[in-house]
Amino acid sequence: MPEPIAVVGIGADGWAGLAEPGRAAIRAAGVLLGSRRQLALVPADVSAERIAWPTPMLPALPGLLDVHDGRSVCVLASGDPMFYGIGATLARLVGPQRLRVVPHPSSVALACARLGWPAEDVDVVSLVGRDVDTLHRWLHPGRRLLVLCADGRTPAAVAALLVRRGFSASPLRVLESLGAPDETHHDAVAGGWGDRTAGPLSVVAVHCHGDSLVPAVPGLPDDAYDHDGQLTKREIRAVTVARLMPVPGQLLWDVGAGAGSVAIEWCRTHPACRAVAVEQDPTRAARIAANARTLGVPGLPVVAGAAPAALTALEPPDAVFVGGGVTVPGMLDVCWDALKPGGRLVVNAVTLESESAVVGARGRFGGDLTRIAISRAAPVGGFTGWRPAMPVTQWAAVKR
Question: What would be the CATH architecture of the domain defined by 5-105?
Fold first, then answer.
């Protein structure tokens, strides 16, 4: 049985703030792994060999653990190791049963305590190793956010994004070195923060004040997207994403993605939802990436290539939407074969040829067909009448 790995959370208050279980785990270690700042918080009389994380850390982590296999290893983490911390990475790498985690109050717990904010009413967004555009999806009038900073420049980037989105009146509090003797904070509104830098250990508290409404539910306005007309329209998109049934942690293929709207709205339903947008036109592929950034899912992968050939190297999906290329020979069969058991395939057909293809696929794989017709009010001379859009035939099937 491999030696257990102790993972001890340590705050900015250092050794003085550690409870006895954390101190005991550190004193019992033969090897201490952590950042240089964390290692410096441990008293000199602790005899363990101290090894600072290399840069980059994650690729080197398996090798470091292998080199010290058989020794008593203790990993130092910031605050709660299992909250956006190294503990979660280690659990994936070696398995949770091998870890003995000793948590410390997280920066989020400390921030909520300082602010008097109930933790259950706060959305937490980490920008450590993440694009600031991730914040877009969390901006809603009246919501409270805690943003975990990558460095001292993050508060200025957050403030600038809030201004661009129409939330310039939002009060900010930048909390620095929470729990340390030199803890401090700075108050401003987003529009007044400017380019000021903060300390390297900072959390930005935001109370969103603005009237920009971009909800998390599917069916965003069409003008939320930059597009050239190749866009699944708002009402059809809402029905489509609902039939795809987003599940946290599951993967969607958006094939013939156009503006990327279905993949983006799948990802916006939950932070753990994943998608790949496949689009053969390079201009549209670049547009998908831009739309994803604007709507808060900047990590959306975009594959610029023609399906079904471009699908062969992708991770098997839990759901597939085919919005373009329905009539390409073999397209629907390849997508169906790639689906995991329980996976959902949804196809929208507008032309007679694509409708024929989905009718044939339904004969082979089952599922159901739905005709969706949308009409919008429009001027008719001096009056108002209904102007119908092209009807959409939607095929949806579940792989048993």
Answer: 3-Layer(aba) Sandwich (3.40)
Give ranges for CATH 3.40.1010.10 in the chain: 5-105
Residue 234 parent element (H or E) = helix 234-244
Beta bridge partners of 175: 185, 203
Measured between alpha carbons, how far is 299 from 277 in angstroms, rounded to an integer? 11
Domain with CATH 3.40.50.150 in the chain: 222-398
Every domain of the chain with CATH number 3.30.950.10 lies at 108-207
Rounded CA gap, 267 and 282, in Å? 22
Please give the Cα distance from 147 to 126 (Å, whole number).
Answer: 6
The alpha carbon of residue 292 and the mean position of all alpha carbons in its chain are separated, in whole angstroms, by 11
Per-residue DSSP letter, 280:
S
Compute φ and ψ for 303, nearest 5 degrees.
-100, 115
The pLDDT of residue 52 is 96
Burial class of residue 270 in the structure, from the number of CB atoms within 10 Å of its CB (0-12 exposed, 13-18 middle, 19+ buried): middle
222-398 CATH choice from 3.30.70.141, 3.40.50.300, 3.30.360.10, 3.40.50.150: 3.40.50.150
Query: Mean pLDDT in each 10-residue stretch from start to end of the chain (400 residues)?
Result: 89 93 96 95 95 93 92 95 94 94 96 97 95 96 97 97 97 96 96 96 97 93 94 96 98 97 98 97 97 97 97 96 95 97 97 96 97 96 95 97
Instruction: Report long-range pairs for 359-368 (Cβ below 8 Å, ≥24 apart).
Output: 359/395, 361/332, 361/333, 361/336, 361/395, 361/397, 362/395, 362/397, 364/333, 365/336, 365/397, 365/399, 366/397, 367/395, 367/396, 367/397, 367/398, 368/395, 368/396, 368/397
Tokens (6 digits) for 125:
């967004």
Q: Which of 294, 295, 276 is nearest to 285 (CA)?
A: 276
* Integer Cα distance of 239 and 292 in angstroms: 20
Q: Would you state the pLDDT for residue 1?
A: 64
Rounded Cα gap, residues 336 and 113, in angstroms = 51
| Identity of the amino acid at 49 | E
Domain covering 108-207, topology: 3.30.950
The dihedral formed by the CA atoms of 272, 273, 274 and 279, expressed in degrees to the nearest 10: -150
Q: Which two tokens stand for residue 328?
A: 């390409």
d(CA 82, CA 310): 37
